[in-house]
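Example for tutorial group B:
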């Protein structure tokens, strides 16, 4: 089996190494030798690992138009030109393996249709959870189940930042800077810290779990930029840990909820103990019950493990999913959750009753109200609500922000748990 590799960065180099290390064992398993014929890169001047000598190209047609190449492995990243290259590969009768969650979450529908028409495979195990097997279990091992809930920690960078903030009492900006210096976080961290990466992965998981196409634009997305040292400390005092959670649920009437949001996770929840760059995904199926998938959600060799497994599966021709309809995801304002709200207000009589009065008008009741630090003339107030309609929370916060005694609504975090 001859492969055209598009991209030789972190993941692409891992694929080269893994095929070199385990090639013989893989050949015994599948009865075919996997050979990388050509490797597409952007910069022809960059120094490369010695084992790729003679294989490097900057001309995509060297891969896309080569009839000897059976499988195109796309590990370049970004939406364009990766999408166009994948389409051309499929149109030319080649199977495609990709780690690209942006392309799959936004264009999976058309690519899968094309792959089905051309009777080739389109596999994307590495696009969610790096080395964690989750796409294949959802498509195959759990196919007999009705999956009604999927939730997890899908982004390693944000989980690392939140873990370090908690363990070392550092600020968001401080940990981010350090993570960038060490190369853990991208220089432009937007996709990770603002939740877009997690939303793309969640869109892929919801589509496979609920058999309806969910796209990232359907998913209400809030990242971790606003999480402060105080939020982390108050969460700890309340018995929680803050995690960036990606959540999808469908009820028996087909009502579908999907969001990415910081959530206070209780100590008894297994997601509470998922730290650092690790990812974890909890799946609930009506036959199998609750499952947890845990492991390294990124990195050279874990991600290569998922990519090469897909290459191996091309031999078995795993068919793509069939024509799902587009999902109708609930607007976040219609969903219900408990909320933690931190605000700063003038430290004077009557302020608390004004705040609780506004919440009362919106039908929101409170589990607790605590006045925290007083800094100068301002006091910090932490509120935890009972389950409330999110739209009412948004309305109440708009009104609260306009009160003259209020300095600012500093943060709003979901709190897990049923009532
Ligand atoms: P990376 O280190 O930035 O490498 C990208 C590679 O693609 C480089 O070799 C680059 O060439 C090449 N490339 C980029 N644009 C190109 C273009 N227009 N034409 C030709 N070559 C181009 O990226 P990565 O971290 O390996 O990630 C690759 C993909 O895997 C992304 O979709 C990412 O989301 C996904 N993924 C990554 C991880 C991870 O841990 N890194 C985990 C899961 C999924 P040069 O070498 O010449 O610059
Ligand atoms: N940037 C991603 C993360 C890794 O931090 O989880 C690739 O999926």
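The residue assignment follows.
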């Amino acid at each position: 089996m001859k492969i055209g590799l598009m991209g030789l960065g972190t993941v692409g180099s891992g694929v080269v190494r893994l095929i070199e290390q385990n090639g013989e064992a893989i050949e015994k398993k599948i009865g075919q030798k996997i050979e990388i014929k050509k490797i597409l890169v952007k910069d022809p001047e960059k120094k490369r690992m010695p084992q790729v000598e003679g294989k490097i190209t900057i001309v995509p047609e060297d891969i896309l138009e080569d009839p000897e190449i059976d499988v195109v492995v796309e590990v370049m990243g970004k939406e364009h030109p990766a999408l166009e290259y994948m389409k051309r590969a499929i149109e030319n009768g080649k199977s495609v393996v990709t780690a690209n969650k942006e392309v799959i979450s936004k264009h999976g529908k058309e690519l899968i249709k094309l792959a089905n028409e051309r009777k080739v495979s389109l596999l994307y195990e590495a696009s969610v959870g790096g080395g964690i097997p989750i796409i294949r279990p959802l498509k195959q091992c759990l196919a007999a189940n009705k999956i009604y809930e999927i939730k997890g920690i899908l982004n390693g960078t944000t989980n690392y930042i939140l873990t370090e903030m908690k363990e070392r009492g550092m600020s968001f900006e401080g940990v981010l800077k350090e993570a960038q210096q060490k190369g853990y976080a991208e220089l432009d961290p937007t996709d990770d810290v603002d939740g877009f990466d997690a939303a793309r992965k969640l869109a892929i998981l919801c589509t496979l779990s609920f058999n309806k196409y969910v796209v990232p634009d359907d998913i209400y997305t809030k990242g971790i930029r606003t999480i402060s040292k105080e939020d982390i400390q108050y969460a700890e005092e309340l018995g929680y840990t803050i995690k960036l959670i990606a959540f999808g649920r469908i009820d028996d009437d087909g009502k579908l909820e999907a969001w990415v949001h910081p959530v206070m996770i209780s100590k008894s929840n297994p997601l509470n103990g998922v730290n650092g760059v690790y990812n974890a995904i909890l799946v609930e199926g009506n036959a199998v019950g609750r499952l947890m998938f845990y492991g390294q959600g990124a990195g050279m060799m874990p991600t290569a493990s998922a990519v090469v497994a897909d290459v191996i599966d091309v031999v078995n021709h795993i068919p793509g999913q069939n024509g799902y309809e587009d999902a109708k995801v609930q607007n976040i304002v219609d969903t219900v959750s408990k909320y933690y709200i931190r605000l700063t207000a003038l430290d004077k009589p009557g302020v608390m009753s004004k705040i609780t009065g506004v919440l009362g008008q919106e039908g929101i009741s409170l589990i607790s109200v605590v006045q925290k630090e007083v800094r100068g003339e301002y006091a910090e107030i932490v509120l935890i609500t009972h389950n409330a309609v999110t739209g009412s929370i948004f309305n109440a916060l708009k009104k609260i922000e306009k009160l003259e005694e209020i300095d600012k609504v500093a943060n709003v975090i979901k709190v897990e748990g049923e009532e």
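Residues 336-415 form a domain with the Alpha-Beta Plaits fold (CATH 3.30.70.260). Compare this with the pattern of hydrophobic and polar residues in the output above.
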